[in-house]
Amino acid sequence: MIRLLLVDDHALFRQGLKGLLSGAPDLKVVAEAGSYSQALEMLRTTEVNVVVADLSMPGRDGIDLISHIKVANPAVAILVLTMHEDSEYATRALRSGALGYMTKAVTSDELVSAIRRIASGRSYVCPSVSENLMLRFTRSDSDAPPHATLSDREFRIFELLVQCQTTTRIARELSLSVKTVSTHKTRLLKKMGLRHQGELVRYAIEHKLGGH
Question: Topology of 142-207 in CATH?
Answer without folding.
Answer: Arc Repressor Mutant, subunit A (1.10.10)
